[in-house]
Structure formats: structure tokens, C-alpha cells
Amino acid sequence: MFLVSVQSMQTGTITKYNAFKQIDLPDRTWPSRVIECAPTWASVDLRDGNQALAIPMTVDEKIEFFELLVALGFKEIEVGFPSASDTEFNFIRRLVDEQRIPDDVTVQVLVQAREHLIRRTFESLTGVKSAIIHLYNSTSPLQRRVTFNKSKDAIKEIAVEGAGLIKELVTSIPETKIRLQYSPESFSDTEVEYALEVCEAVMEIWQPSQINKIILNLPATVEVATPNVHADQIEWFCRNMKERDKAIISLHTHNDRGTGIAATELGLMAGADRVEGTLFGNGERTGNLDIVTVALNLYTQGIDPLLDLSNLASIRTSYERITGMNVHDRHPYAGDLVFTAFSGSHQDAIKKGMDIRAKESADEGALWQVPYLLIDPQDIGRDYEAIIRINSQSGKGGVAYILERDFGLDLPKPMHPQVGKVVNAAADQNSRELNSKEVYAIFKNAYVNISNPLEMSTIEREDPLKNGEVRVEAKIIYQGKQHTVTGQGNGPISAFVNALDQFGLKSFKLVDYRQHSIGSGSKTEAAAYIQIQKNDGGTHYGCGIDPNIEVAGLKALISAFNRMEKS
Ligand code: KIV
Ligand code: ZN
After folding, report:
1. pLDDT tens-digit profile of 30-56?
2. pTM for this predicted structure
3. Residue 255 Cα to ligand 1 middle (Å)
4. What pLDDT does 361 receive?
5. Class level of CATH domain 454-566
């Protein structure tokens, strides 16, 4: 029974918790090492991950998950704890009976160092081609005292006896290629000298060789210290063990302090060869190590992770459906929002990076260098849709990026701040995010083909004059009344400006004119942008869109004029 307590956090002198004792390793070498290749990955989704679920997976679900892991490229998969329940036992039997285990995949089975459980585990393996038998018992002072009430020697004896029985039974399934793994559970909280003593006692029994190595899995069953301490523990262990060349050192970090990934990465720098973990970090309490994140972290350092994570969204969908767990919006690489920038300055930088990238796109091997984006989202099956989203904190670059990416509108740079402000204000007013169609609609309403108070209904262009200029005659509606205006200039736009001048409407000067086409084939349209400056100083922009390039230019001019009139 738990006592209900009303006490709260201690303040001042904290007596309830102690700092973790540092490892005596002043000449540690791991801080200056670099990870150069992917470790051997071992998935424990179907065991550690499964035992952490409120509703454990059914056999069918486990089979689907197993197939997902195989498709991703896992070569070592812990398929459960076959002696723990019929479901676990039946699962491995189905894998065997239905011949679902590829030849290059080794299944791993977990077992406590207890005789009847070990025997049952061997029964589950009949007919398996290649298996890892994973023996464990807990070794930390806390577990020795509280859970087992046993001395160090007695705890070591449990490991030794279990190892002995396994050694004896290996010959009972000669058709199975067996590899052996031992975990001093709660290694992270165990005196390193004692953990090594127990592991070496197990090695003594199993007699590994350089060819048939033992897997020594050193779990951070509970994460009790900073990741550098974990790295020290691993380096200390690797340096002090007698036959390092006969062992594969494996990591198995949990995430109680939220640093399981860091602990694994530093553990690899400290000399480990193998990593156990789960997809997206599912597992007891705060979870096991998230293999997806560590693998993609390697990838972003230019290292092939040897796992196929190129369709992360579908991996995530399968994972969520089968486990009933959710991947958080901010989860590295897989979260919905992790490639999204709402903030204006970030959007500007991303747009610049993406523009440069677009120019380099012919060169697939070009270095990925887009500010704020650690990885190219497309490498893991995500598109660029989400990278810029517009809300009240967004800015000019983001809006310009969306108009270009989704609508082919390449706004002149000087226009960006004004347009950004207009869209930004609309998002602020609505107090919500705007989707890309809404951004376009706001831009269109404010800048494109604006026909009030000035509208042009027709324009006729005469043959070039002797001096090469053109003359135009246009029918316009200004403030609801029809007029015919005429003018000349070195092109239709300047001729129309001249006509407005003669009509008494020119209170501005033309500053800039640009145009480009949108789309291709019969659907091609022209977009034109005009910047005018009012005689008293204000700058106004307009955009014209029309299948005819000249008309687009005139519409842009009229839009800018109308915006000026309304300002
Ligand atoms: O976290 C742990 O210590 C384990 C062991 C059984 C390896 O899962
Ligand atoms: Zn675990």
C-alpha cells in the first residue's frame, strides 16, 4: 500500500537526493573521439517497447511490427520474453512456423537467470536458424538490497548459474546458431568494478572467442546521471575488461532524465559497438533509446545509418497504429512541426537557403545548407509544404516563399516587406495560422488586378510612330465615369502613363517594372509587378496577372495606381 503524502519539493538544502558519484577516469579519451560508422542496431520494440504498453500488442500486431523492422533493415530483433507468457511464446513460434524470419535476421530472446524460464526459452527456439539468448539479472546496490536482499556474491552467483545452464542447453538445439548476450541490469547504477566482475564471471562460463563473441549489454535501466558519466562508465568498462576483443559492447539506454540519446551517442564515442533501442523511443516510463533519432543524427553527420528511414511518415503511421502511442509534434525528425518555421526571421533565412538550393538542384550531391533545417525533409519522405507556415509571427520571406512555391509568383524583393505586413496583419486579426490558399487570396485582394477607382476597359495601340514610340488610346472608367485617354511613349506602359498624365491623373513616377511567366503550355499566364512613387514620396506596388503580357503590365500599373489612390 502507498501512503498518501502531502509534502512537496524540498527547498534549500536537498537531503532527499544525492549527486551521482563520478567515475574515476581522469584520462578519459571519449570526448575527443568521433563516431565514424553506424553501430549494430538491435530493436527491442517487441519486448521492452511492448512491455511498456497499456495494451500490449497482439500476436498479429507483433508480426506486423516485426515485418516493419525487417523492412527497415534491422538484423537483430528482440522478439520477446518467450517464457513470460503464452502470447510471447506463441509469437516466436508463429515467426518460425510461418517462416517469417529472413536468413540474415537474428532473433533475440530475453530470459531471467532462472532455471524454469531458461528451459522454456530453449523450447521456444526449436527450428530457429539464428538466435541470441539474452540473459540478465540486476546488479545495482539498490536492487541487491531492496529487491533481492542478497550480497554481491549471491547476485553474481545468480548470473553464473544462469549462464551455466544456458551453456549446457545450447547443445540441445544444434540446428540453431546461437549467440549469447548478458546484461547486468541496472548497470548505470552499479559500481563499475562489480559490474565488470559479474560480466567476466559470465564470460568465464561462456568462453567467447574472437569469432563467437559475447554480447555484453550494459543497460542504463534507469538513467541516473548526466550522459558524460554514462560515457565514462562505458570507457572504463572497455578499458578494464580482460578480453575486450571477445566481446561486443552493447548500449541500452532509457530516458529518465531525457538524455538517453545523448548517453548513447557518448557511449558510442566511448567504445560501444552495438545499440539497443526502439522506434521513436517507446519503452518503459520515459522510454527506451529512440533508434530513429540516433540513426538520423548519424546521417546528418554524413554517416550511412544502414537503416532505411526514407519514408518516416509511413513508419510513424504504422508505429502509432500498432502501439497506440503518439509521436509528439516536436519529436526530432518525425514530429509534425519539426520542419516548420513560423517566425519571420527564420522564414527569411530558410527562403534564402532554399533559393540557393533550387539553383543547385541539378547536383544531387550538393551539401545541404539551409539555415534552421538540419536535414533535407525530402530525404525522409517529407515534403517542403510544412517548412514555412504563416501566422502572426511570420514575415516577408515566408509569405514570398509560399507565393512562389505554391503559386509561381516571384515577387520583386522590395515588395516583400509590404506584402508580408499585409498578410501578417490578416493572420493577427484572425488569431490563427493561414493556409497557403488564404495567403494567396489576401495577396490577390490587396495587389492583383485592382480595378477601383481606375479601370481600363479597352486599349488600342497604333503603329509605331516615326520616332519609334507607340501611341495608345484607352477607354477608362475613373470614379464611375467613362473617359477616352490617349498618350505615347516608348512602350504601352509608358504610353498609358503619358495618357493618364494628359488626363491629369499622373501624380506619381514609375520606379520599377518586372514580369515573368507562370505555368507552362496553353495555361501560361504572365505576372507583372510595378512599383510607383507618389510625388509626395510614398511607394506603392501593384501586380497584374493576365494571359497577355502587355495587359498584365497595364493591370499592374493600374493596381499600383489604385493602391496609391486608396492609401
Ligand atoms: O532496461 C533494462 O535493463 C533491460 C534489460 C532487461 C536489458 O531492459
Ligand atoms: Zn530496458
Report:
1. 999 999 999 999 999 999 999 999 999
2. 0.87
3. 12
4. 66
5. alpha beta
Q: Read off the C-alpha cell for 97.
A: 512456423
Q: Which atom of ligand 1 is nearest to the CA of 110?
A: 6
Cα dihedral across residues 49, 53, 59, 63: positive or negative: negative
| Segments in the chain below pLDDT 50 | none
Long-range pairs for 61-68 at CB < 8 Å and ≥24 separation?
61/322, 62/91, 63/91, 63/94, 63/95, 63/100, 64/318, 64/322, 65/318, 65/322, 65/323, 66/95, 66/100, 67/100, 68/315, 68/318, 68/319, 68/322
Which residues line the pocket of ligand 1, CB cutoff 6 A?
48, 110, 136, 183, 185, 217, 219, 221, 252, 254
Give me the helices (H) in 125-214, please: 141-142, 152-170, 192-206
Find the ligand nearest to 185 CA: 1
Q: Which ligand 1 atom lies nearest to the CA of residue 222?
A: 1
Residue spans of the domains in the chain: they are 40-323, 344-442, 454-566
CATH architecture under which domain 344-442 falls: Orthogonal Bundle (1.10)
Nearest ligand 1 atom to alpha carbon 254: 1
Instruction: Write out the CATH class of domain 40-323.
Output: alpha beta
Whether residue 147 contacts residue 192, with contact meaning beta carbons closer than 8 Å, is answered with: no
For residue 458, give every residue at least 6 positions away whose Cβ sits within 8 Å of its Cβ, in sequence order, or none: 474, 475
